[in-house]
Specification:
The protein is an alpha+beta fold and 150 residues long. It contains three helices and eight strands; from the N terminus they run ββαββααββββ. The mean pLDDT is 94.
Length: 150
């Protein structure tokens, strides 16, 4: 059993930005030399997510509209109420409310995806892509890929 770890960095534009990272993940799999196993792709940020889905403009527009309806940014969030909040405080966050981004992230589920590897290739479906979702403001971000297998 072999393991390979790689960390990638990107600067997001903020909002509901979706970045296709499929080719970078596939490159990490190739670098790993692992032919059969699993690639775990993970965001260590609480207001980002890694998902597998289509990277198609109509779907991305529909998805952003749905998330904004479910979790509007202009609502009250206790997370952004500095008279109430006493934990996990970062001075940068006090200037920008991001309670909505945390709620979106929780709705999306896991912060990462596990993708099978067969014959050194990602086991994605025809239209599937690995997507990095920024749910908060413009920031420097990173995502991790760990490849495990033989």
């Amino acid at each position: 059993m072999k393991t390979f770890h790689h960390e990638r960095h990107l600067r997001t534009a903020g909002g509901l930005q979706v970045t296709d990272i499929t080719e970078d993940v596939a490159e990490s799999v190739r670098e790993s030399g692992i032919q059969n196993g699993i690639a775990c792709v993970y965001s260590p940020h609480t207001t980002c997510s890694v998902r597998v889905n289509e990277f198609e403009n109509g779907f991305l527009e529909d998805f952003a509209t749905l998330l904004k309806k479910l979790v509007p940014s202009n609502e009250y969030y206790a997370h952004d109420d500095w008279d109430k909040r006493t934990e996990n405080i970062c001075s940068e966050d006090m200037d920008f409310g991001n309670g909505h981004a945390h709620c979106m992230s929780m709705l999306l589920g896991s912060a990462g995806e596990s993708i099978p590897i067969r014959d050194g290739e990602l086991g994605l479906g025809t239209w599937q892509r690995v997507l990095f979702l920024e749910l908060d403001r413009e920031r420097d971000r990173r995502w991790l890929v760990q490849v495990v297998g033989t």
